[in-house]
Amino acid sequence: MIRARSLATLAVAAAVGACRPVMVPDVPVPDADPSDAWEQVLAEVVTEDGRVDYDLLTDERAALDAYVAWIGKPARDGGRGGLNHAMALNAYNALVMFAVLQDGRPDSVLDVPGLVPRPGFRFFYEQAFLVQGHPTSLWEIEHEMLRNKVMDERDHGALNCASASCPPLRPELYRSAGLDRQLKDQMQAWIADDRGVRFEGDQVLFSPIFDWFAWDWSLLTAGEDLCTALAKYARGDRRQRLTALARQGCPHGWFDYDWSLNDASGRGPGRAGPVTRRAHGGADALRDTDPAVDTD
After folding, report:
1. What's this model's pTM, rounded to 2 decimal places?
2. pLDDT tens digit string along 157-198?
3. 265 domain residue, yes or no
4. CA distance 131 to 117
5. Which of 49, 155, 169, 186 could be bridged to 160 by S-S, CB 3.0 to 4.6 A?
6. In angstroms, rounded to a whole number, what is the distance separating the alpha carbons of residues 129 and 86?
7. Is residue 228 within 8 Å of residue 236, measured between CB atoms?
8. Distance CA 35, CA 68 (A)
9. Quick check: is 269 in a domain?
10. Which of 266, 87, 284, 259 shows the shortest CA–CA distance to 176?
11. CA-to-CA distance for 231 and 252, rounded, in angstroms?
């Protein structure tokens, strides 16, 4: 997950985008929709805590490759208008897993080397995939197809960037008919997990994702503080504590983001990424630095 910040950075991104590699599976496009077969494998490789068994995924990658090939099939109208909300979420998560395998299962998605020496730039922006016949990066799916068009802050709980601190990955595909329920369920699972919310002393520590995309949460929750906004998805003691902190002005900070691969098969140690803890509610604020393309 990355943001867009400076015009200079975007200019470099545009130049790189003109010659970026397009990663495609070495399989033909299936005649029939392979979503059901991929969903069966997804249920097998995603653990109860929402991480990925990449050893098993490697063994079962035929279903992933077929699904990625299907995503790349050109739309009848020649555009990408057929990629609805649920399909965009599914495409992002599948392409992340596909990229992890294609990139040799790096210790962190920030470590994949590219033309621009910026952590995560290669993984999220420089390398592209075919989405309905068009070269498309993970950045474009997240920001152009989802944030700029759909504008649902709950998507941040549904997208998984293959890192230890990412929200839990859902072991099923998103479906248009039940998407609202699924997104609510994802938010509940994220807030119930230490990858979303932690309590420390008299304050709450949130995932830096809520800081990186603070504009989304402020706009789409009508300016509610995070304690109030997230208490709606919390249960039991967590809801009570968030509600109580909301009455105190929601004193909070951000915990360090772990960008190590969310690999449940046990490869590699955890590693915190370039995130500086920042306190709110009367404390001085320090600037954070998130990976890849960042902007003001």
Report:
1. 0.86
2. 999 999 999 999 999 999 999 999 999 999 999 999 999 999
3. no
4. 26
5. 169
6. 18
7. no
8. 10
9. no
10. 87
11. 14
The rounded distance, in Å, linking the Cα atoms of 94 and 64 is 7
Euclidean distance between CA atoms 187 and 153, whole angstroms:
10
Measured distance CA(288)–CA(255) in Å, rounded: 11
Q: Which residues form the domain of 155? A: 7-254
Return phi, psi of residue 254, to 5°. Answer: -125, 135
If phi > 0 it is left, if psi is from -120 to 50 it is alpha, else beta; for residue 295 that is beta
CA distances 223 to 30, 143, 219, 295, Å, are 46, 21, 6, 21
Which residues, at least 6 apart from 215, have a Cβ–Cβ distance to it below 8 Å? none
Query: Is 292 inside a domain boundary?
Result: no
**DSSP structure string for 208-264:** THHHHTHHHHHHHTTT--HHHHHHTT--HHHHHHHHHHHHTT--EEEPPPB-BB-BT
How far, rounded to the nearest angstrom, does the alpha carbon of residue 61 sit from its chain's CA centroid?
21
Domain total in the chain: 1
Q: 68, 25 in Cβ contact below 8 A?
A: yes
Is 112 within 8 Å of 103 (Cβ atoms)?
yes
Place of tokens 């759909």: 150
Between the two ends of the chain, the Cα-to-Cα distance in Å is: 16
CA distance 112 to 272: 16
Question: pLDDT tier at 219 (50, 70, 90 boundaries)?
Answer: confident
- Both tokens of 29, joined, read 């496009």
